[in-house]
Design goal:
There is one protein chain. 40% of the residues lie in helices and 16% in strands. It is of the alpha/beta class. It has 2 domains: 125 residues, no CATH class; 100 residues, no CATH class. β7 and β8 form a beta hairpin.
Length: 247
């Protein structure tokens, strides 16, 4: 048992936000001697540490999220989520460092921690990227009465654009597609879904621009796309944050 505790642990998870939150639960429960946290797809085995693969548990992830919102602020949790979406190498360890401080009994928003300056600088980069992309978004009318637009952001910011887009384009049905990460926001009659390239609407024969000179990515319904798409959050986490905030 003593030897087990001294072992170094390389944590792997499925790359989703709920998977990362599940890790936080098991970290506190099992007291891993964590040396790295990586999505399973990018993990490279090493002889110096033991791999621990985290099984995503949605109930446990929501418990962790609720605990963080209770002890922090909704604004800070949203910021940490945006940082998670950066997919920067090693971002999980830096976010966990901050969350550990949030969950500690002596937490103060002014407390210093090793990654504080780095996370603040990264957050500013993400904010600037959001502002840049928001000013560039253009939708084009398709034959099936859905407006379609594409973006190529430096970070995975699609989930961070939902509130702005719902407010600005509330009266139309639209799809905004991230050409780099191959998934989209789909707004239909006021409802938001995240979809990937396998969504049937994208291969509809009438899902083509009314104007011929519009750049349009090709969607092949029979293509063997990677599944699941690790960038696609599959849910609007900001709705979840708001739900816990209102409890």
């Amino acid at each position: 048992m003593k030897r087990e505790r001294l072992a170094k642990h390389s944590i792997t998870y499925d790359g989703t936000f709920e998977g990362f939150l599940s890790y936080i639960f098991y970290q506190y429960k099992n007291k891993y001697n964590t040396v790295s946290i990586d999505p399973s797809l990018s993990y490279k085995p090493t002889m110096s540490s033991q791999q621990i693969d985290i099984v995503t548990n949605e109930d446990l992830s929501l418990r962790v999220l609720n605990g963080n919102i209770t002890k922090s602020s909704q604004r800070e949790i949203k910021e940490l989520y945006a940082l998670f979406l950066s997919h920067e190498k090693g971002i999980e360890s830096k976010i966990f460092e901050r969350i550990s401080l949030i969950l500690s009994k002596h937490n103060s928003i002014s407390d210093h921690y090793a990654s504080k300056d780095h996370l603040a600088a990264l957050n500013q980069k993400i904010i600037r990227e959001i502002e840049r992309i928001q000013n560039q978004i253009t939708f084009h009318q398709m034959r099936n009465d859905i407006s379609f637009g594409t973006i190529k952001p430096s970070f995975n910011i699609l989930p961070l654009l939902v509130k702005h887009l719902k407010s600005k384009f509330s009266s139309t049905n639209w799809i905004l597609f991230d050409e780099t990460r191959k998934y989209a926001i789909y707004h239909l009659h006021g409802n938001i879904r995240f979809i990937d390239q396998t969504e049937s609407i994208l291969s509809d024969p009438d899902f083509i621009p009314l104007k011929n000179n519009i750049h349009f990515p090709t969607f092949n319904p029979t293509a063997n796309y990677p599944s699941p798409n690790r960038f696609n959050p599959n849910r609007n986490w900001f709705d979840v944050f708001q739900t816990f905030h209102n409890q």
